[in-house]
Amino acid sequence: MSPEHQWSEGRLARRRAVEALRSGVPNADAVVALGSGQDDIEDRFTRLLEDVDGPRSGPGSPAGRASMLLGAGFGEGKSHLLTHLGQLATSAGFVVSTVVISKETPLHDPAKVLRAAVESAVAPDGARDVVAEAVAALDTDSPGYAELLRWLRGPGRDMNERFDATLLLHQRLSGDAPGADEEFLDSIVRFWSGDPLLMPSLRHQLKAAGEAKSFSFSPVKARDLARQRLRFLPRLLRAGGHAGWVVLFDEVELIGRYSLLQRGRSYAELARWLDGNPGDEGEPLITVAAITDDFETAVLSGKNDRESLPGRLRDKQTEEYAEMAALAEVGMRHIERDLLPLVPPNQEELDRTYRTLRQLHGDAYGWEPPDVPGLEQLGATRMRQYVRAWINEWDLVRLDPGYRPVTDMVDLPGNYRELAELDDDTS
Amino acid sequence: MTTQARPEAVVLGGGSMSSGSYAEFLGEEYLATYLPAGGGSVKLVVTGDADVADRFERSLRAAAEREHALMVSLSAETTKVQMIDQVFFAVARQIDWDQVAVAIVDSAYDNIAVPAAPGRRTVAEVAADHDLDPRELYRSVRRALEHILLTDTSLPRELRRALLRLAQAHLGSGDVSSAEALVIRGWLTGERVGLRELREAMIYARIGRHNARTMLTSVGRLLLRTGVSGLVLHCDLTRLAEARRPPIPERTGIYYTKAAVLDAYELLRQLIDATDDLVGMLVVAVVPPELVSDERRGLPAYAALQLRVADEVRDRRRTNPFASLVRLEVRLEAVR
What we know:
By secondary structure, chain A is α/β, with parallel strands linked by helices. Helices cover about 50% and strands about 10% of the residues of chain A. Chain A has a five-stranded parallel sheet with strand order 2-3-4-1-5, sandwiched between helices. In chain A, helix 1 packs across helix 16 and helix 7 packs antiparallel against helix 11 (about 220-240). Chain B has about 325 residues and is of the alpha/beta class. Helices cover about 45% and strands about 10% of the residues of chain B. In chain B, strand 4, helix 11 (about 260-275) and strand 5 form a beta-alpha-beta unit. Strand 6 of chain A pairs antiparallel with strand 6 of chain B.
């Protein structure tokens, strides 16, 4: 059998990496091979991982949620870097979620975003269904569980009572407790993950457990419940044995194509994701968001959001919109002032990437790729284009060793033109 | 080496291949080795016209058969391709779930060193063949099944439970009747089954948008266990290009609003981003040329997908058949 038809796990991984790189999407194996080339950002992130246990307020300590906002142009390595940071987090024992802002996952809808974060969550051992697995690992006698309870009844006592009630019922019903109701236990896990919980069911179970009078439930909006889940879940995951939760946001610049109102909501949600809840110390959650570095110019200035948007929201003259306006201002300030720029690759970095990809392609297809010219190294050329050009040329030369590729490039710039269909929530 | 960025005519096109040669290429480079080894990929194929599309589909099916892969074809005319659960159900209806269950049962018996002969998989039969106590054998094989399935965190929880029930139905021990197995298969294929009946299988939720994607990306993995070399999911998206609905008497099948078209692109985008999870699965989405360049309903309307598939870098003279977007018997399209 020729080397081309022999498959080891390593070869499969490299082939997958090449497949992903053809689409310009990061792949775990490609990211491991290439690294990030962003040492400063990596060091900052590593410190956040290490500090997750400590208080986030006090002299010398950053206040609020551990978070970062990264910026670079289209195709300049943001997704690749996010994947790399996710790998660092996984190595440190964190659950990692990647949320790509999209039509289906609009940043202005906290319930959908939370749902996407939960669905995309991967545990350090590679398990999905992270919430269910963490719940299955809960030990009510463990310090982690005690910490969860302490928080829920202390700093987290403003949380809706549904969380306390469901945690209590889970403790009572799970394991070998008599009368265990598998279906209701499953519905608790799904509630924590983002599904609605039928209140008659909850009340029935509380009554059966003799706790009917212990809770009185106030109405709560879906978006508020989503925000509370975001406070509850990192601690639940921690109690289930993980170091915490890292949520990575990609393609945040899509919010530039929303309508004005939805942009306002999105800036407010961005502020919430980056800043968290005041007073929630020791929160085992880190958020990292990536946005294009021209967003400030193109949208905050270009669409005059900075100046006009808060006023337009306040003109609605409701408390909800006043709060939204204030938070939107915070969100926009983050974009203006807190963007950590990615460092463009220098010649050495490009050469290293070329050598690594050449090796990767060779290992994936069981051959020795020759040198190929690729794209001329111009300042405007994006890393994604370099990578795709090299791989394209090796593909062609592998198919015909006598061929000399000539690569053309077409620039596909992004745009921030408003797209009405992004506001369509009917699908 | 020459590099040119062309600001005047933004041509999103490279060369073109014949439908037969591309299908053959996919058979050799993807279906023969990469998919069976556990790989996955998503390709967007631009076909010059309906005849090219038909020939490509036939050639791809022939290639799949040669390589012992299962090819499932969907059309946007008859399946709501913007809805991941509908895509999953359409695929699930063409899966032999019994074959999947049998493969799992065989693995369980193999794991406890009591192999089952073909067609003799009930506990009673296997016990008789190996001169074992059926009750002890049942306990052992049941444990083996649970170990294989319930600890396989690569599969969604509900799917693990569903497969466990389907496998148990083959043990003949009365745990799961054929009627219950029918309910499970109905759940998998999107039929209306009662939640009460599902509860008995410890399945508490229907398949919907929230869990269908992981269900779909699990199918290839499951097929590999049955000896099939992978799944080819062929999606004809031609209908997405139809912006104007014909008069009611002339309408056939599903028509898509622009919002629904973008949802379909989002679904493809998610599959591309989940390439690592596409074990044993090749997704081939077929589109007409106008969807590559049309700014209202084509790829330019959804940058997230366009940036992933469009050949922003391409060779001046040759088509790369490995590319994410390949043209079959079609002229270059130009877009302003």
